[in-house]
């Protein structure tokens, strides 16, 4: 009897424990639901964007002139400072002009003498012409007078040329800038004796406009050639320390061969440079714009995530749930990226908070600073659980 009571008591306790465990399990199952993941979103934009190639290039002066004297002599004056901007025709150096002025005076005197001799020979010839007709002088004397006139005229021409040469040499004493540009460091000082066509005095480089030389791979050559048929291609040149300030230019040269050693093709852009932001020899970033992609879908570059199957994003639907969406991305456009497939304009894309999202789960859209956003169509369906 006592054993039976014990068995009944044990059975009653076992059933009570089972009922209690079952009741607690149901409460937990009914009360557990994953909270909405806090996220920030942005609407997918749509606009025309460029299709481009990004390359590294180098600035090159459009014109580089090394100034050399065309006569020998001593430098007597300097008319510029190192690094000055000069215009075509500005005076740079003066070579001692006195020897050349003396040579010009002598050449002019010789010319005057030759002209006088030629005038006298002409008078003699005219007289002989009349006398030979009356047989007053022999034909030989007449021929001698004619020859003297021809020699005199030739000497006049010779001395005229000597005067022009002497005058030109005197002009060469004043060395002027042949181009608009910026001077470098002078290589001679006052008192130095320079030699004609041998001594380098100065280098001048034209800075406006300026060239930007760069290369593209042979794999990109076809795209460049095809788009060049539609007209001149535009470029954007950026300094490494000023990436947000592009300088526009145009492609003006495509080389006629691929470099064997590198498999690249040389290109050159011409860029206005009135404010001299670009400097010869400086490396720059060059964007060659090939075409325009109309109506491209754009999202922040931080939105796409990577999985084993490729890139994807989360799109917030009207019911406040996050949809897993595989996409194909294209080129970067600053802080944005082009979505080639998988997304439509205006859809709400998750930009941050992806790590807490479960596909199909609820999300809670925050404001731009992490605060609760005002209710919207995309978040009204995600009420409290």
List keywords for this structure.
single chain, 385 residues, alpha+beta, conserved putative lor/sdh protein from methanococcus maripaludis s2 fold, Elongation Factor Tu (Ef-tu), domain 3, Helix Hairpins, six-stranded antiparallel barrel, 4 helices, disordered C terminus
Written description of the protein model:
The protein is of the alpha+beta class and 385 residues long. Among the domains are: 37-49 and 295-365, conserved putative lor/sdh protein from methanococcus maripaludis s2 fold (Beta Barrel); 52-62 and 207-293, Efflux pump adaptor protein, beta barrel domain (Elongation Factor Tu (Ef-tu), domain 3, Beta Barrel); 97-172, Helix hairpin bin (Helix Hairpins). Helix content is 29%, strand content 38%. The protein has helices at 2-31, 98-133, 139-171, 218-228, and strands at 37-43, 45-67, 73-78, 85-86, 91-95, 174-176, 181-183, 193-194, 202-217, 234-239, 242-254, 264-271, 283-300, 305-307, 310-316, 322-326, 328-333, 336-341, 348-352, 363-365. Strands 1, 14, 15, 16, 19 and 20 form a six-stranded mixed β-sheet that branches. A six-stranded antiparallel beta barrel has the order 2-9-12-11-10-13. Strand 17 (328-333) and strand 18 form a beta hairpin. Helix 2 packs antiparallel against helix 3. The longest helix has 36 residues, at 98-133. The protein is elongated. The two termini are 54 Å apart. Residues 15-21, 23-29 and 369-385 have low confidence and may be disordered.
